[in-house]
Amino acid sequence: MALSDSVTTCLSPPVHYVICKLGFEKTDTYDINTILSENGEVCWQAVTEHVCYLKSDQSVDYIESIRSLGPVCESVNLHFKSLTKQQFVIQYALWFRWTNCSELFLEVFDVLQYTQTTEVALGLMKLTSCLERALGDVYLLIGKDCPFLLRDLLASEQLAVVFGQAVMNVLRVFIGSPYGLNLRNVLWHGFASPQEIPAKYCAMLLFLTAGLGQLLQTYLLQTKCILVHRPYVIFVNLEELDVFPLNHEMLSIAEELVKLSSFVLKTMLPFWMAALKAFKQSRYADCVILLLPQLEVGFRLLFTTTNKCPNRLLTAEVKFLSKVNYDLMLAKHLDNEVNQLPAVLEEPTMASEFLWDFLNHQEGPRIRDRLSHGEINLEAFPREVANQIVAFAVTLLCRFSDEDMFAFKEHMVIKPLMNCASCYRSRFHPISRLKKQVLECMKSIHLWPELPTVPEEHVETTKRLEGNAESSTLILMISEIISQLQQYMPQNCCSSDDPINSVLTERLLIALCDMYICTLYSPRPVLEIVVVLRKISTQCHQVSEQVIAGTELRYKQWMNKTLRSRQRHNYLRMLNSIKFLSPVLRLILVLITLELVNVHLVCKKNPFDYQQYLKFLKSVLQYTENLVTYTSPGKNKWDETVELTNKALIKIREICDRKLMLMQLAT
């Protein structure tokens, strides 16, 4: 029998006891009127007295607190069940406004009426993420940098000032502390199945959120402060996230695959079905919230099986909860041994690079972080993102299915998806972003020949010849450097007739950027080099944009005869400088890309003094930074640009002569 069939819980025995049994040990009935006043306010003192403390150091005794609060939670749950939707709205809706997502909390009330376990778990995940975001907004009334982790936020002095330490301790029993119920993390990391989350804990958090709203109103009235909500994160450039095709036929097949794939734990099957249903109903945030923890469960199942550590599949305890996640599962090494998970994936780079792209890379969408910390407007969650997560999940369901599932894998609808997955390359790794920057910069420089220039008859012959000798010298030096580097370039992109215009082209850069570079497990030297290369590329792009803007402006002023004599001379110097600046910038972009292609190969060699190489790169960066200054509208130091460029090219030629470029070291 497959392990995915035999596993009945992902909670270790101690954690299963805490979540599923401890809060049910006291069976006495608790009167709701003890914690709820006649005017509908939460009586916090009656709630906080159920939090117990250790005699040794007066820290929270989470076990006894959960046991004591169990009947209170049941009372709140029954109270909510006794209310109609209208009664609930009248009594509580006002107190959810501070969260900036009142409708979500009203939806959670609806879910509690029917006690559908999957929907309760989903409601709890959404509730905790929105509550965390709202608490972060409250923190910023006093503090400056909001803690990233919920446990640090709940333990902060700032929230204790607003709500009181006793109140914060109540919250920490339910969320935030790994010693308590830890409902948020247990759900978001995929440890709990739908039936393992008692609905009464969801009801209690709903109740506590309303109570926090009441306390906050009092604090704001006393301090005259105004609560400001941080803006939501908005996904931009959604076309970059468009990787996999997905249609209704694929969804129908996915519903069959879910029931058969070894990637899915059977106890978690309701989550998968609910996720696919949510997608069909255009509830894209719900779909992704349900699916992300299940992807983690599936990878954890593979990880623990291939690395022969099955105990970690069943762990949600303090010392492991924050570790058995994607960071560990995608790591190169595990306890001084090679992580075997990438080896069992048919396309190890594809799965790992996709996960890093969508979940981890700082310039990527970081979907799980932003969803789980409440940074995204759930109502406006883009279909494009959900599309990719669902499609990626389908490829995993196919890949980890039995041999007799061959028909599914070769299905005319699924096969294009699998082919697309096998070709996936990282889009948000720093190396990938550098490639994108270089191509965008080259597109900008390619606009230069189209810029308007002064008609020949408007310029005196002596002025046209001014500076030509200097430009010719620089262009000759560029040609010499190109001739040194041509052997490292793709042959179909080179020509000896006109080295500058035939080699320093967009076609060459595209060919170089199309070369595959593995972004997994990039060593520190590689990342440090890429950081500097990206800065150089950014400065080159800035120079190009300034040249375009300055040329267009001066041309209009020339034609309108509004330039003074000195400005006219300066404009002519600019036109002359453009002749050598274009090939210089293109040369730098080609150098960046050639070096990028070889950086992994060189960094594997020993010895390699990459600090010395970084020093050279930083000198190139300094040159481009100075170029930005000299070509800015406020400076226009074109004569100085000639001298600056001459020194930079001499330095580059010297490095090439000494064969210290990465492309030279790699051969």
UniProtKB/TrEMBL annotation:
<protein>
    <submittedName>
        <fullName>EMARD protein</fullName>
    </submittedName>
</protein>
<dbReference type="InterPro" id="IPR025209">
    <property type="entry name" value="DUF4209"/>
</dbReference>
<dbReference type="InterPro" id="IPR039635">
    <property type="entry name" value="ERMARD"/>
</dbReference>
<feature type="domain" description="DUF4209">
    <location>
        <begin position="131"/>
        <end position="211"/>
    </location>
</feature>
<dbReference type="Pfam" id="PF13910">
    <property type="entry name" value="DUF4209"/>
</dbReference>
